[in-house]
Structure formats: C-alpha cells, structure tokens
Request: fold
Amino acid sequence: MDFLILVKNSILIIIKIIFVIVPLLIGVAYFTFFERRIIGYIHDRSPNRVGPKDFLRPIADVIKLLFKEIIIPNKANKLLFIITPIITLVPFLLAWAVIPFSNNFVISDINIGLLYILSMTSLGVYGVIIAGWATNSKYAFLGSIRSAAQTISYEIAMGFALVGVLMAAGTMNLKEIVNAQQGGVFSWYFIPLFPLFIIYWIAAVVQTNRAPFDVAEGESEIVKGFHLEHFGTSFGVFLFVEYANMILVSILAVIMFFGGWLSPFESYFPSGIICILLKTMVFMFSFLWFRATFPRCRYDQIMSLGWKIFIPITLIWIFILIIFIGLKLPPWFNGI
Amino acid sequence: MEYNKYIKSFLLLELLKGLSITISHLFKTKITIQYPEERIPISSKFRGLHALRRHYDGEERCISCKLCEIICPSISIDINPINRIDNTKRTNLYEIDLFKCIYCGACEEACPVDSIVETIVLDYHLGHLNERFMSKDNLLLTGDNLERSMFIQKEY
Reply:
C-alpha cells in the first residue's frame, strides 16, 4: 500500500518536472529568437530569413549546434572539460525545483526556498571556474576569473537585497512570500523595497554576465570568456545555462518584488500562472533592452559599484526597513 | 555642484534617458528593404551589366570602330576586327573583363551606333573565375534578353 502511494507520488513529480523543463527549453530557444528580433527592432532593422518571420531560426540553431564536431584541446583536462557543461547546468535546473508558478503548482514546496535558491545560484560559479581551468587556455582562464569575481562580489549585494524581502515577508518559503503580498499592485514589495529592487535587478544583470556587464567576453583582449574552447553541444549547454539563468533571475524578481502569480487588480483579473509568465516576460525584455542601450562598463567600475555603493545602500535600507516594520506600515507590514 | 552630480547618478537619470530613446526606436517604422522581394528604385541612367544590341532585322550593331576600346579608362575591352564576306567590318572577338571594368559608362557614350550599352542589371554572379570575361555571345545574349523585357531602353 505504501509502495503504491510512493510510485504514484513519484510519477506525479516526474510529470510536474516535465511541465517545468519542456517549457523552459522552448522558452530559452525562443528567448534567443526574441533577442535577435527585439534588438534588431531597436536598431531599426529586422532579420527574417529562416521560415515565416524568422520563426524557425532557434530550431536551425539547435540543429547546427547538435551536429557540430566537439573538439577537445590537446592539453585540456579531458574529464573536467567534458563534465563542466553539466556542472554549470545542474545547479540552475535544480533551482527551478522550488519556484512556485501558482498556489498549487510547485515541484517542491520547501521552507527554506530562498536560501536554497541562493545556494544553487552560487554553485554555478564552480562551473565557470572549472571550465576556465580545464580548458588550459590563458584566455579562457582570464575570462573565467573575471566572470567568477564579478559574480561572487555581486552575490553579496543580491543576498542583502533578498534579506530585505525576507524581513518584510517573515518567511523563506517562496509561496508564503508571494501570499504575503496579496491585495493588488500597491501591496507588492517593490514599493517599500524600491532601492533593494533596483539593486537586486542590477546585480542580477551582473550575475548573468549580460551586457553592459559582460566583461568576461572581450573580443580584442580576452576573446570569448570561459567557454572559449567549447564547440557544438557543450557550447550549446553553456548558452542554455546563460539564458535559463536570465529567465530564473527574472522569475525570482517577480516572486520577490512583484507578487508572483498575483494579479495586479485582483477584483478585475484572476490571479494565476498567466500573470507570473507575463510579468517574467517584462523582465526578460528588459535584459534585451539593456543590451541594446548601454555600452560596456569598465571592470574596475563594476567592482567599485558592487563593493562601495551597492552593499552600503542595501545595509542602510535594511535599517530603514526595520523602522517601517516597527511602525507596522500598512498595507505591507501590518500583518507581521 | 558636487551634490547635483550625486543626485543625478543615484536616480539613474542618464540611464533612464538612454532607455527611453531606445524604447522609442522599438516602435518606429522600419526602413529596411527586404532585398530579394523588394528593391530600391533604380535610376534609368544606372550603369550595370554590359550588353551588345542588335538592329531590328537581327543584324548586330557593332561596326568594330574600336572607339570604346580607346576611351575605356581601365583598358577592360578587347576587340579583334575582321572583314566579313559581305564586305562589312565586324568583330570576331569582343570581350569585357568585368573585374577591370569600373562601370563609368564612357563606352556607351563613345559608341556611334548605340551598340554597347550598360543595362540596369545590378546583381549577377559568376560561377567560375573565367566567367568574368564577358564574351561576344554572352553580351549579345544579354542584349537580346533585356531588349525584349524593355530593360535596355534608356532615355537621354
């Protein structure tokens, strides 16, 4: 009897995992498509050659990457070279386990969801460092050091920004964080935590190594970053991780600051999975928007921005937040 | 003055200005021309691929006067004259090197019988390196094809 329940539960979990992973794969593929289209539109041009309106381009890209030959450099550490894409991929897929898409749809509803997400995204740095080292190329190693350093330094500011959310909601369970923001657009956390939200979002752009903070990639000096010598499928996995990571930080921003699956006007429009997806798309769009707008930052500017400006501001705002919570400021903190 | 600078950078004013400019460009009408399907309008005086024309009775116009060969600034035309059996002067070799040609149009201005012309064909490809020498047959063929489709009619 117990065995039967176990089998039934595991089948249910596997179905849930498929319902998360498959849309994620398609989402990543078409995220690259929309990146091309939207940045093209912002630059007053529009690529449209493969299929109707270029819609088959991601599929052509995937097929190209899968059928390319994988070349392993002579002096590379072969075992590490082959498993680094997997090391980078696994933590980012694991992080999706605790993301709540609606009140009922979450793979694993654990109590320390926020801490789990932070630890899983931190594990991704190991993949970056090992990828640079295992390639045994100076350029890849320099790129991996640069991107690892910026990821680690901005993790602190990002962590402090999420501490603010933690204090406001009083829980680490992501589902309860969303439910604490009930009551329309004005009770979402981005209003009392606005500086923390801005810092979280900039730190997220830095952590995903996207423009204007993509300093690991510099064609003239350090070529292509840590995945310099990876071709074909292994490069495709790195690319997938980059885009999946962007989707992950977007959906986290929605859950932490913009009320997850809650609808902005709860009496007019029903809350549900469509709300969280639409809000996430707005954040994903802003990644492309930044890329089309800003020139690349200098490396020392990025570092001083993270250590000298973001961390002090988050600390100051956490103290202001303590005063807010002490006053039980409605409509955000009257429930605590 | 110092405070002003700090306020500006903390409110991200300049970044927001840049973002507003790019978002306005996202919704602008695009001026891209989808090339194989759409083309930009071409002037009737456009100087493209060369062609040799014929008279209405099918006789070729070229009388081998060699004015085009003399005037050509890049020395890309090569002509060999012969006397035909009916005692008219014709060519048995008329070659244009498309790589040397600078498409200046001097040859069609020099031609007394309106034989060598530059059509408005602007896109063509060569399958082999030797194909860059447009032979007399090729030039006449281009002329025949384009004469019918009215491409060759130029107004001066």
